[in-house]
User: What shape does this take?
Amino acid sequence: MRSKNVNPKQKSFFNEKADIWDEICVHDQKKVEYIVRKIGVFGDERILDVGTGTGVMIPHYIRHLTGGSVVAVDYSERMIEMARSKFPENDFPMISYVVSDLYDLKYENEFDLVVCYSCFPHFVDQPLAIEILSQALKKGGRLVVAHSDSARKINGVHMSGGVEISNDFLPLMGELKDMMAENHLVVSFEQDDDDYFICIATKG
Assistant: This one.
């Protein structure tokens, strides 16, 4: 167990905010779809959606998947409940939900695509997170770290967002690429500007 890498105050923050999260954290769906197109979600892929929250990415996966499946993971029980209420397994059998801390995931060579959308700053040990998520990927699979805003804006929001998340920052793109390289992940696309922070890497 790697629970030492979980910030309990941070987890409580997300559980407490889950019911109103979609009101206070609004994602531009056109920008999210841009990210999905850059990723290139294919019909029969197996996807791990890390930090799924209330399920922002799920409707985009549903739209693009003709087969395949999505495992939606979050350490916040209430966030998972909110996602499940919008996309229940009975209606969307390709979706399954897992309540788990990232650092307790034990997947190995199971996924074609691992996506960290709008969650990477909250990982306490970011290099270890990349290591664990790389292990979850099949050879040739892609790991994505993405935000539909600039790193500067994301970090600014967190700095002013309360003590629970005030130290949760996106790394510099170069630092993230170094973490990827250390885990045999080759960056195939990067975008770091006023509108997006996107890094897509392939497992060699």
Q: What stands out?
A: The chain has a mean pLDDT of 90. The chain has one domain: 3-203. The radius of gyration is 16 Å.
